[in-house]
Write a structure and sequence with these properties.
alpha/beta, Zinc Finger, Delta Prime, domain 3, five-stranded parallel sheet, globular, binds zinc ion
Amino acid sequence: MRPYMGQIIANQSLRERLCSDILNGSLAHAYIIEGVKGSGKHTLALLSAAALACEKKNDKNLPFPCSECPACRKILRELSPDVITVGCDGKATMGVDSVRFLREDVFVVPNELENKVYIIEDADKMTPQAQNAFLLTLEEPPSYAVFFLLCENAAALLETIRSRAPILRTEPIARELIDEYISRTDRRAAQMKISAPSDYAQLLMSAENGIGRALELLEPKTLAPILEQRNLAKDFVYIAIDRPENEAALTLISKFSSKRDKLSGELTLIYTALRDLILTKKSDNAPLCFYESRDAAIELCEKVSLGELIRLSEAVWTASDRISRNANVKLTLMTLLSEAEII
Ligand SMILES: [Zn+2]
């Protein structure tokens, strides 16, 4: 079969769906692509734009898009004036201003291609006002316009927008494939795999099934805080289960963040670690989301009962829930450590 969007290894069925929509001339005016950060949403949108414009579209002996004709090359290098990416520019939300640009620009005919493609990053961060303003464009777009709304959570989009654009969800990629791909194509990854195998294994565990995220984590300043957070989670679980008689327990509390959203991330990670252990108790083949080594998970499990693990994970869940409901940070942590019998 003809390789569809062959450069990427992820999202096979989505690639096939978009390519056949393009070849059949049945591409919708707008798609919502939902998936975690780094799961290939932007790549899918960009490859679709290239597929739409590919000059070798009808050559069945070539991959689709060919990635070598002038149109493909310009689009894939993000240099085409007719493929426009709009985002939050580092802001927490996307307001009416960004949408105003879209609404005006969409009526300017394409420069060189037959279509004009808009890739809207973080579409779920559009304010409701911005979404309503965008809806007017989405309801009656010019025939050449195609929109890709990328988001982590399509539920944050207004129902009126969701009903006008099919939702495509990116598919998780197995860690082995991410490992194979990044260690083959990125020198930093290949080096890290040899020189720091433990950090590399943790990087793969933290990549949330996305190659883009894995590549981001190869930057030491992105990876360092993640490793710190993972160490905190490992320490918490180890101390709660093993109860070593040293000062580790006392210093644990100072390692938690005093910032609410960071703390919430830390508690979620501890919960994930405990969930791994609960699953390990029940099955030898449970897929693990936190522990990079099954042996380490099994060793911890041997020291604790299933009931105790469930009790611990409930305590962590309750703490996380209290934090999201604005409870006092320090008090919530003290209660958690006491419920986990750490202090
Ligand atoms: Zn091409």
